[in-house]
Specification:
With about 350 residues, the protein is α+β, with helices and mostly antiparallel strands. The protein is built from eleven helices and 13 strands. Strands 5, 6, 8, 9, 11 and 12 form a six-stranded antiparallel β-sheet that branches.
Length: about 350
C-alpha cells in the first residue's frame, strides 16, 4: 500500500534516496559536536575525571541524585563505590567522545544515533529536573532523544563516510547489518515512524509534567531554593548529632547553614545555640559524608552542596536535658530558610 511505504529506500532507478540524510546534516553535525565537546572539555581543556581536583564530573553526577527519575539506585550504588564511579565516568566520557566524533564524520551513523538516544535518556532521567532560570537539562535530554530517533531514520546522507562506502560499491555496503548500523536504505514503515514519534512525545510530556508541572497544576522549579531534609536527630547532655541531606536548590553552589538551635518545646527555651562562627570552626571529624558531594565547613558556617548527605556529630555540649520534655532541632540557612526536626533523647 502506498500509504505505508518505506521512508528511507531506493528510488525507481535503484539509487539510494539520501535527501533525508542531507536534510538532517546540520542536526548530525551539531549533535555530534555537543557530545564530542563534553569529552573535549573533560579531557583536553580541563581534567574533570580526577576525583581529587575541583570540578570532578562525579560530583556533578552526585547532584542528579535527589530528584532523579527511575535511576536513583544506580546513582546511589556508584556514589557509594567511588572507584567504580570514577571508571564509570571515564567510560561515559569516552562513549560521548566516540559517539560525537563518529556522528560528525558519519561513521556508523545509525549505531551512533542509538548511542545518542541512550545518552540523552540518561541525561533526561538523571538531571531533567535541574535548571535555575529555564528547563536546561530537560531540554538537552528530550532534544537529544528526538535527534537520536531522527538520525536513525535518516542515516548519514551524502556527506558521510558511510556514503563513501556505499558509493565505492564495497561488498559490505550491501549487507543488511551495514544498512541498519551505518546508512543506506532500510525498510522502515510510516506507521513505525509515527509510533516512534508518538513515543518520544509521550516521554517529553510525561517528564515535563513529572519534573516541572509543565502540563497542569502549578509550575515548579526545584533548582531555585535550597531544601535540606533532617533526620536521625538525637541529643544528650554532651552531644548533638543529626543527618542532613540537601534535595533541592542551585547545583553550582551550596546551602549555607549559619545557625543550629535546639529548643525545648514546653518552655520555648533555646538550650543550644550555635552561630555561624561556631559552625565554621567545627573539626573535620565531626562531619561524616556519605557521598562525593561533601558537606564541609566554610568561612561563614557549614556548606551543604546539592545531593550531599552527611552526619554531623557535635560534641562538647554542657546542658541539662530533661527526659520528661520534648526538644526540636532547627537549622537556619543564610537565605532565611529554617528546617526543623524533632529530637530523640539519648540516655
Amino acid at each position: 500500500m502506498t500509504s505505508d511505504v518505506s521512508v528511507n529506500t531506493k528510488s525507481n532507478s535503484g539509487t539510494w534516496r539520501d535527501s533525508a540524510g542531507l536534510a538532517v546534516l546540520p542536526i548530525r553535525l551539531v549533535v555530534g559536536w555537543t557530545y564530542f565537546s563534553a569529552f573535549w572539555r573533560r579531557i583536553a581543556l580541563e581534567n574533570k575525571l580526577d576525583p581529587d581536583v575541583s570540578g570532578y564530573v562525579g560530583e556533578k553526577f552526585n547532584h542528579f541524585l535527589p530528584q532523579a527519575l527511575g535511576i536513583k539506585p544506580i546513582i546511589v550504588f556508584l556514589l557509594e563505590h567511588p572507584d567504580l564511579l570514577k571508571w564509570s565516568m571515564v567510560v561515559f566520557t569516552v562513549v560521548e567522545g566516540v559517539t560525537g566524533l563518529c556522528l560528525m564524520a558519519g561513521i556508523l551513523t545509525r549505531a551512533m544515533s542509538v548511542s545518542v538516544f541512550l545518552l540523552a535518556l540518561g541525561i533526561l532521567l538523571g538531571s531533567g529536573w535541574l535548571g535555575t532560570t529555564c528547563l536546561d537539562e530537560w531540554q538537552i535530554g528530550i532534544l537529544g532523544i528526538s535527534a537520536g530517533l531522527t538520525l536513525f531514520l535518516a542515516g548519514g546522507g551524502r556527506y558521510s563516510l558511510d556514503h563513501v562506502v556505499v558509493e565505492r560499491n564495497c561488498g559490505v555496503a550491501e549487507s543488511c547489518w551495514f544498512r541498519w548500523l551505518a546508512s543506506g536504505p532500510v525498510d522502515v514503515r510510516r506507521r513505525q515512524v509515527l509510533g516512534g514519534a508518538a513515543a518520544v512525545l509521550i516521554i517529553a510530556l510525561c517528564t515535563n509534567q513529572y519534573f516541572h508541572g509543565g502540563l497542569y497544576g502549578p509550575l515548579r522549579n526545584k533548582s531555585v531554593a535550597p531544601i535540606i531534609e533532617v533526620s536521625n536527630a538525637r541529643i544528650s547532655d554532651r552531644n548533638l548529632r543529626f543527618t542532613v541531606y540537601r534535595t533541592e536548590g542551585v547545583d553550582v553552589y551550596g546551602s549555607f547553614l549559619v545557625g543550629v538551635t535546639v529548643t525545648e518545646s514546653e518552655t520555648g527555651r533555646a538550650v543550644v545555640v550555635l552561630r555561624a562562627e561556631q559552625l565554621s570552626s567545627l573539626p573535620a571529624h565531626s562531619i561524616t559524608n556519605r557521598y562525593i558531594a561533601a558537606v564541609k565547613t566554610g568561612a561563614y558556617g557549614v556548606i551543604v552542596p546539592l545531593g550531599a548527605k552527611a552526619e554531623l556529630n557535635i560534641d562538647g555540649l554542657d546542658i541539662r536535658i530533661d527526659p520528661r520534655h520534648h526538644y526540636y532541632l532547627s537549622l537556619a540557612d543564610v537565605s532565611g530558610a529554617v528546617w526543623t526536626q524533632a529530637l530523640q533523647i539519648d540516655d
